[in-house]
Amino acid sequence: MNAVEVEGLTKSYGLLEAVRGVSFAVRQGEIFALLGPNGAGKTTTLSVLEGYTAADAGRILVLGTDPAAGSRSLRQRVGIVLQDIAVQPYLTVREALTRTAAYYPDPRPADEVIALVGLQPQAATRVRRLSGGQQRRLDLALAVIGRPELLFLDEPTTGFDPSARREAWALVRDLRELGVTILLTTHYMEEAQALADRIAVLAAGLLVADGTPETIGGRDTAESVVTFTVPEAIDLSVVPLPTGASDHTDGHFTVRTTEPVRYLHALTGWSIDAGIAVEGLTVARPSLEDVYLELTREAP
Amino acid sequence: MTALPTAGRKTRGGLPLLLSELRWEQVMFWRNPAAAIFTAAFPVMFLVIFGSLNRNSRIGFYGGIGADQYYVPAIISFSMMGACYTALAMQLVNRRETGILKRMRATPMPAWAVIAAQILNALVVGALVGLLVGVIGVVFYGLRVYPSRLPVFVLVLVLGGLSMAALGVLVGSLVPNLDAAPGIVNFIFFPLVFLSGTFYPIKASTPVAQVMQWLPLRPFTLSIFRVFDPRGGPVVNLRDLAVLTAWGIAAALLAGRRFRWEPRR
């Protein structure tokens, strides 16, 4: 069974069509990233899954139940970290966790969760005295104290510096090791690439691609770009080229091919046999960033 | 697939959960200096101001009773209004706009318990401040108390407190944002406090009293005063209690429709 199933999710706010028929599934135990620029519909989608927002249309199942019903048993099994930090300011870290633990049937011990998010030195500190990053870690601790099977993280590292982001990523991976299924939204490509087992790209309310970080957007089958330089003196027509797009100026070649291995074999074989030097040889596959920018640019 | 958590230990339900929440609400309330000082120190300050200004004066239209015997009960009712109306409304707006209510909604805590714990907390705060005012009244202002009327006092205090809390939740639900909260909450409250005779006695036959007797504050203040009224008239005025209850029910019904968990941004 999938942890989350979404089919044809549609949601409008007045004239704004925030989400336009989005479908995807999150498998149990994986980290799934909803990637997209601001305003793509990530938070709206998550809000529907969290039960805060009713969808206009679509079939939505979270752990096998409809989140719009707002059942208590579902809320016992799902942890939520919202975009904005929202923790009672006048309790200490340990008090806030002890209080929240009482809402759940089988909570993790407060100290275990404090250690998980690395807040041991602040355990007796009141929340209002914590830094922004520490408050976010407490927010995450509060979301996992109830031993959730599924965790929703809405832009968990927005505003983090690079080292804080890496710590947060390690924490999210730790949670997956504990068996938690994680659905997160992000507008950072490197975050999706570093963390996610699978990615869905949203743009302007539409799901424009989904797959693993390696295959998304046809990244694995897309054309590779081979560049190299040959001496200007030679007859350039003897340089082997694949059928399709390639061009050259003054001996600098840029070749696009879907079969880079085969082409490189032909090119380097020719170079050795003919005794003509091929210099500055590079092979590049499209980066996730290229794919992402391509996907989100074309969205209507 | 993991076993359903409900198969294991059960969550605390109903009363134990509510009482544990009440304890946390108390901790949070008294640690918040702004709320604690406003709610506890204001009534004491007004008691001292009005008590000192009217030292040894008598109220002719209440059969010449000492002014303190009116002011102390009136300020007890004001304590309850401050805790259950003003502080609760501000707290709700604050928690809604900072996302704390939305966050609570994501936990398995039932919605009714989230609200009930805050109302219960407001009642406890109001009762504690009212008790402080009463003790100061007995010690420094010669307030006479009538132990046999204690059950009526508790009834009126709880009924009035619940009514004020319903109004607090309603007004809190109508306030659009954090910046507007103090203005709206107090702009409704303070004129009514003055016109209802909570800060100085108003003769029942005056036009102001004729109007105010149908609004919730005057019936509440007078109902508390009757418990301490030395003239020995009826301790309970059913019409006042009915008006108070009606406002509470109407406010609760309307609040149920207007209440929002999420920020109004």
Averaged pLDDT of chain A: 89
Low-confidence stretches of chain A: none
Question: What portion of the residues of chain A fall into strands of 2 or more residues?
Answer: 25-35%
Number of helical segments of chain A? 9
Assign a percent range to the helix content of chain A: 25-40%
What structural class is derived from the secondary structure elements of chain A? alpha/beta
Distance between the termini of chain A: 33 Å
Number of E strands of chain A:
13
For the termini of chain B, the CA-CA separation is 39 Å
Which word captures the global form of chain B? globular
Roughly how much helix do the residues of chain B carry, as a percent range?
Answer: over 70%
* Radius of gyration of chain A from CA coordinates: 25 Å
What about the largest sheet of chain B? 2 strands, antiparallel
Could you characterize what this model shows?
The complex is a heterodimer of chains A (300) and B (265). Chain A is an alpha/beta fold and 300 residues long. Chain A has nine helices and 13 strands. In chain A, α3 crosses α4. The two termini of chain A are 33 Å apart. Chain B is mainly α and 265 residues long. Chain B is 70% helix and 2% strand. Chain B has ten helices and two strands. Chain B has a two-stranded antiparallel sheet with strand order 1-2. In chain B, α5 packs across α6 and α6 packs parallel to α10. The N terminus of chain B is likely disordered. Classes of the chains: A alpha/beta (300), B mainly alpha (265).
